[in-house]
Design goal:
The protein is α/β, with parallel strands linked by helices. The protein has 5 helices and 4 strands; from the N terminus they run βαβαββααα. Helix 1 packs parallel to helix 4 and helix 4 packs across helix 5.
Length: about 140
């Protein structure tokens, strides 16, 4: 089951049901089974606090994923900074919705065992993101 939550910000997610369907399809396309996945939308400050507390990282980021998956069942919490998504959308000249979906699917791919530590892992992650983003092209025009 996919759930969406908002933590300490004012934010309304559009197309919730379509996004849930898309995430379910991505997980199936990655040959995994969907367990419980929560996407939590929050502020930069909230995500920075999580990054410091749980990962010992003292910097802003767009997404932090906590993986609770077991075997082929994908489960976890994906914390997303709406502030950083907005900033990155402007920086990369894409819509907010497109960047938000990229970050969401990035977290899902981490739950599907994709890594992004090395250059080759980052490239593979980006290719999978692009592949899955193409499935929702035009949703947010």
């Amino acid at each position: 089951m996919v759930t969406f939550h908002v933590e300490n910000i004012s934010f309304k997610l559009s197309n919730r049901q379509r996004l849930k369907t898309w995430i379910k399809q991505v997980v199936a396309d990655e040959a995994k089974t969907l367990g419980d996945v929560s996407c939590i939308f929050c502020s930069d400050d909230h995500l920075l606090s999580i990054n410091k507390t749980y990962l010992n990282h003292d910097y802003f980021t767009d997404v932090v994923t906590f993986d609770y998956s077991e075997r082929q069942v994908v489960s976890g919490d994906i914390f997303i900074s709406v502030d950083t998504v907005r900033t990155n959308a402007q920086k990369y000249n894409v819509s907010f919705e497109n960047e938000l979906c990229r970050v969401m699917i990035h977290g899902i791919l981490h739950l599907c065992e994709y890594k992004d530590s090395s250059k080759s892992e980052k490239l593979a992650m980006r290719e999978r993101e692009d592949l899955h983003l193409a499935k929702i092209q035009g949703w947010f025009s």
